[in-house]
Every structure is written in structure tokens, then in C-alpha cells.
Amino acid sequence: MSIDTETARRTAKLARIAVPEERLPALAGEFNAILGFIEQLQEVDVDGVEPMVSVTPMRLKRRDDVVTDGNQAEAILANAPEAREGFFAVPKVVE
Amino acid sequence: MSALTDLTIAEARDLLRAGETTALALTEAHLEAIEGAGALNAFVHHTPEIARAQAKAADARIARGDQPDMCGIPIGVKDLFCTKGVLSQAASKILDGFKPPYESTITDKLFHDGAIMLGKLNMDEFAMGSSNETSVYGDAVNPWRAGNSEAALTPGGSSGGSAAAVSAHLCLGALGTDTGGSIRQPAAFTGITGIKPTYGRCSRWGIVAFASSLDQAGPMTRSVRDAAIFLRAMSGHDPKDSTSADLPVPDFEAMLTGDIRGQVIGIPKEYRIDGMPEEIDTLWQQGIDMLRDAGAEIRDISLPHTKYALPAYYVIAPAEASSNLARYDGVRFGHRAKLSQGDGITEMYEKTRAEGFGDEVQRRVMVGTYVLSAGFYDAYYNRARKVRTLIKKDFEDVFAAGVDAILTPATPSSAFELGAMEDADPIQMYLNDVFTVTVNLAGLPGIAVPTGQDRRGLPMALQLIGKPWEEGALMNVAQSLEDRAGFVARPEKWW
């Protein structure tokens, strides 16, 4: 499996990271080095092996479905780059 | 009495209990040491006001006869932990200015016990790195130097600031986190002790997430006994982390008898890798001899899937990171890029993440995105999870056959120069974790103990791996190793 510039561009887009056009070939090269390393996994016989879901064999705990927290709008917005009238503010989404 | 900064946590606790020192005196001594250690770039946010207030409260509490083990003990906190009202940036530009309005469960528990926070510690960005060179704060520097050389060495990573601070006596102990070796490798590079507990022993709530199925916090200290004291105070079930185990936390310190007669120590042949320096091999053999002298039975074992641990890790960890780091979008906290006329929300996300994440973080997020993308999910991610099952089974098999603990080298080399890996491809850096990463994949406890020095005088360490939930028994073997190795060297002060 070899990653070309187009795949690198698409992956950057999926990851929502702006990568300048001139940087894409080098990025594809780095991906290929890492994926080449990962490729070793193809040697392993994994027939009939379950993919690991949880490393410790325990059931996740459940709790009652009740409100335990809330009314902290101010604390939640305190770190926002832009907040207005109790909301996070972002560039216009709907034309 | 030796200098207050030369005490272990156990010694400081006992002196506090006897009324022979105060939390405030301990705190002032360490604040002064930090003040003079700017060259190490270990502490990146200083919190002397908090420390002094906590120290006064601790002294008042001790005067009342109420003294949990960590009460009055000055510690450093890795920048990955959210600390209320104190910058917590995971060493990333994208969390620039982030002051959490809440406290991580672990720091909350420690403060509840009376521990004192001196400040926040340097690390690799989002804990992604093995040399502390990906930090937005710049490199942390190892207090150790090689022979007469003045070249700056890496303290390892990702908990590089924690390791440098403990090694240089800037705090009595520090919090680290370990996703693939990030406590044990820096501990090994700086001649201190570091334990990654069983996955689920400590709550992850309030720790900036990297790879949630692998991340665990742990203590970094100057003795095994201190690790036992510190770890007990951090451990326990937390309703806010459903993967934290609802199991009793034993008194780990009480389990340190140093008696390991009759215990079976496994020596895995797969850890004897090509190109391993002879000094590491010798160190390993010395460790084997020490444990045999202590009365343990040494047994050769095989962990056949060891070779596939790093490649599996470099699928699973980036996959989880790409998901966890999706939250950094410039909306709720941290950095937001300056937008141009006409930019919409997609441009805001893309520019913010390009500016906010460093090269290594971007690389891992994109690798993770790729291995999870349609058409590749089965070939990479599912296959890696199956290999992970096999790696865990390797350990289960040897434990079922009667092995109590496993002895391996902690790292494939001693500390290297900062900048030495600049032109190497990323895989070369990843190889630092070759001995530690299996432990995260299998969810097991692992501890690095300094046992020797290389010919240039740099510390080297061995790793012990234990059974799940048996940190106490593991630390007891580590204690035996520490007793016999008699590692007392410390870096000569140049900073």
C-alpha cells in the first residue's frame, strides 16, 4: 500500500488540518514510512482471534440516569475564544 | 539532617510526623531549587502562591494529628493534568491559555490528602514523543550529562519535565502519565523510579486524553518506597471514569518486605533485540543475578508476539488520538486561528488545527484518521486490535504457567542528545518504547528501576512487569532489585 499526494490531501481534509499544497508530497512520504512499519502486522495469523474491546475483563459500571451536574454556563464558556450571550460564537454556518 | 530537597517522600513524611520539619519549610526549599533550575526547563507554570497556601494548611492539619502519607509533600504535576484555575495546556499551542474550571480526580485526591503542588511540568505535546522535544515550551533538559561533555541530553518523554524535576531534586515526586512508556522511559533516562499501574487503577478523569485504552497515570519518585506511598494516594475507583476499577487499594508500602524467595521471574527471549548495546545486555544479566541472589527462581520464557507490539501500538494509539483530539476545534477552548474574509467554519477548524498542533501531533492525528477511514478499518485497526489480544494472551500464558514477574531492560539505550534524532524518520524515535509498549497494550503494571550506569556515567534502568492489580507484589520485587543494585548516583549540579 502506497500513499500518494492525493490520498495525503484527502486524509488531511478528513482530519480537518490545513496542509499547504507544497507540503503534501513530504507528508505522503512520512505516511508511507509509518504504514510500511505497520505493514508487519500482516504477517500475524489472526484467524479466529477476537479484536480487543477492553483490556481489563470488567463490565463497565452503570449509574442511574439522573441529572448530577449543570447550571454552569459561565464556567463552560470561560475558556471560549469567542462567546456571546451565553453561547459559543463561530463564523456563520448557514447562509 | 540532610538538605530538605534530598529527602525521600518517606523520610519527609516521618520528619513531618515527628515535628522535625514543616510543610512550609519543605515547600520553600523546593521553590528555591526550582528558582535556580530554569536551565532544565522542567517547571513551565509556577504556582508558589498555591504551594504556600497548601503548605500552611498541611501544617495546621499535621498539628491536629491528621496526617495522610502525602500530607505536606511538595510535588510537581505534568501539564497533562487539568488543575483548577491553573494553566493546563498539554504542552500544546492549541490549548494556549486554557485554565480548567475543574480539578482532575488524581490531583483532587492528592490535594485532599494534603499534597502540595509546586507547579506544572514540561512534557511532549499531548504526550506524543519520547524526548520532550515536541513541547510548545521548548525542550526539557536532563540534569545528567555524559562524562565531561556539556551537551544537553534529553530527559526522555513524554513525562520529561517530571523526570528532570525529580532527578534534579526540584520536588519530592511528580505525576506522570504513560501511554507507551512515557513514565518508564524518562525515569530510566534520569535515574529515578517510575511505575505505570494496571490500566484502571487510577482515574483518567481530568487528564487530557491521548489514547484512552492505553493511558494511565503514575508516580515518578526517587525510591520504590516513595512510588508505593504516592501510588496509593492516587489510586481508586472514580464514578467519573467508568474504566477505573472498583477494587480495594492495598497499602502498597506495607507490602515492601524485599523478600522474594521462591518467586518466579521470567526472562523473555524476545527482548534480546538486534543492535542492543552491550551495556544494556550486561545490565540485564546483572539484574538477573541480583534477583537470583535474592532467592528468586529465574526462568526463560517466550512472549512470541512482542515484535508486533510497536506496529500495533502505532495503529491503535493514533486511531484513538485522532478521535480524542477532534475536540480541539477552536470553538470551546484554547487557540482559534485568525480568519480571512469569507472564511467559514471549515476553514476555522482547518486553520486552527494546523496552527495549534505541532508536526508530530498532526502526523499522528492524520495516521489515525487514515487507519480508521473507510476501506482501511479492517486491514489496519481491526487487525491491530486482534494482535493486541494475542499480545495480552502471551502474558496471560506465562503468568498461568507460574511466572510472578518479568524482568526486561527498560530502554534500548541511555539518554541521547537533544536534537540527535532531528533528521531521523519518526520510526527511529518510536523504537525508544520497544520494551515498554507491550505493557500498555496488555494493560499490565510495569516499573522502571535504576540499577546501573553506562561507561559515560549515565543512568540505566531495568523494567519489571507484573500481573494485573498486583502492583504491591511487583513493587516488592522492585524493592529487592533496588536494595541489591544500590543505585545512589545523582547528577552533578551544573544548572
Automatic annotation (TrEMBL), chain A:
<comment type="function">
    <text>Allows the formation of correctly charged Asn-tRNA(Asn) or Gln-tRNA(Gln) through the transamidation of misacylated Asp-tRNA(Asn) or Glu-tRNA(Gln) in organisms which lack either or both of asparaginyl-tRNA or glutaminyl-tRNA synthetases. The reaction takes place in the presence of glutamine and ATP through an activated phospho-Asp-tRNA(Asn) or phospho-Glu-tRNA(Gln).</text>
</comment>
<protein>
    <recommendedName>
        <fullName>Aspartyl/glutamyl-tRNA(Asn/Gln) amidotransferase subunit C</fullName>
        <ecNumber>6.3.5.-</ecNumber>
    </recommendedName>
</protein>
<keyword id="KW-0808">Transferase</keyword>
<keyword id="KW-0547">Nucleotide-binding</keyword>
<dbReference type="GO" id="GO:0006450">
    <property type="term" value="P:regulation of translational fidelity"/>
</dbReference>
<dbReference type="GO" id="GO:0070681">
    <property type="term" value="P:glutaminyl-tRNAGln biosynthesis via transamidation"/>
</dbReference>
<dbReference type="GO" id="GO:0050567">
    <property type="term" value="F:glutaminyl-tRNA synthase (glutamine-hydrolyzing) activity"/>
</dbReference>
<dbReference type="Pfam" id="PF02686">
    <property type="entry name" value="GatC"/>
</dbReference>
<dbReference type="InterPro" id="IPR036113">
    <property type="entry name" value="Asp/Glu-ADT_sf_sub_c"/>
</dbReference>
<comment type="similarity">
    <text>Belongs to the GatC family.</text>
</comment>
<keyword id="KW-0436">Ligase</keyword>
<keyword id="KW-0648">Protein biosynthesis</keyword>
<dbReference type="GO" id="GO:0006412">
    <property type="term" value="P:translation"/>
</dbReference>
<dbReference type="InterPro" id="IPR003837">
    <property type="entry name" value="GatC"/>
</dbReference>
<keyword id="KW-0067">ATP-binding</keyword>
<comment type="subunit">
    <text>Heterotrimer of A, B and C subunits.</text>
</comment>
<dbReference type="GO" id="GO:0016740">
    <property type="term" value="F:transferase activity"/>
</dbReference>
<dbReference type="GO" id="GO:0005524">
    <property type="term" value="F:ATP binding"/>
</dbReference>
Automatic annotation (TrEMBL), chain B:
<dbReference type="GO" id="GO:0005524">
    <property type="term" value="F:ATP binding"/>
</dbReference>
<feature type="active site" description="Acyl-ester intermediate">
    <location>
        <position position="182"/>
    </location>
</feature>
<dbReference type="InterPro" id="IPR023631">
    <property type="entry name" value="Amidase_dom"/>
</dbReference>
<protein>
    <recommendedName>
        <fullName>Glutamyl-tRNA(Gln) amidotransferase subunit A</fullName>
        <ecNumber>6.3.5.7</ecNumber>
    </recommendedName>
</protein>
<feature type="domain" description="Amidase">
    <location>
        <begin position="26"/>
        <end position="474"/>
    </location>
</feature>
<feature type="active site" description="Charge relay system">
    <location>
        <position position="78"/>
    </location>
</feature>
<dbReference type="InterPro" id="IPR036928">
    <property type="entry name" value="AS_sf"/>
</dbReference>
<feature type="active site" description="Charge relay system">
    <location>
        <position position="158"/>
    </location>
</feature>
<comment type="subunit">
    <text>Heterotrimer of A, B and C subunits.</text>
</comment>
<dbReference type="GO" id="GO:0006412">
    <property type="term" value="P:translation"/>
</dbReference>
<keyword id="KW-0648">Protein biosynthesis</keyword>
<dbReference type="GO" id="GO:0030956">
    <property type="term" value="C:glutamyl-tRNA(Gln) amidotransferase complex"/>
</dbReference>
<dbReference type="GO" id="GO:0050567">
    <property type="term" value="F:glutaminyl-tRNA synthase (glutamine-hydrolyzing) activity"/>
</dbReference>
<dbReference type="GO" id="GO:0016740">
    <property type="term" value="F:transferase activity"/>
</dbReference>
<dbReference type="Pfam" id="PF01425">
    <property type="entry name" value="Amidase"/>
</dbReference>
<keyword id="KW-0436">Ligase</keyword>
<keyword id="KW-0808">Transferase</keyword>
<dbReference type="InterPro" id="IPR020556">
    <property type="entry name" value="Amidase_CS"/>
</dbReference>
<dbReference type="InterPro" id="IPR004412">
    <property type="entry name" value="GatA"/>
</dbReference>
<comment type="function">
    <text>Allows the formation of correctly charged Gln-tRNA(Gln) through the transamidation of misacylated Glu-tRNA(Gln) in organisms which lack glutaminyl-tRNA synthetase. The reaction takes place in the presence of glutamine and ATP through an activated gamma-phospho-Glu-tRNA(Gln).</text>
</comment>
<keyword id="KW-0547">Nucleotide-binding</keyword>
<comment type="similarity">
    <text>Belongs to the amidase family. GatA subfamily.</text>
</comment>
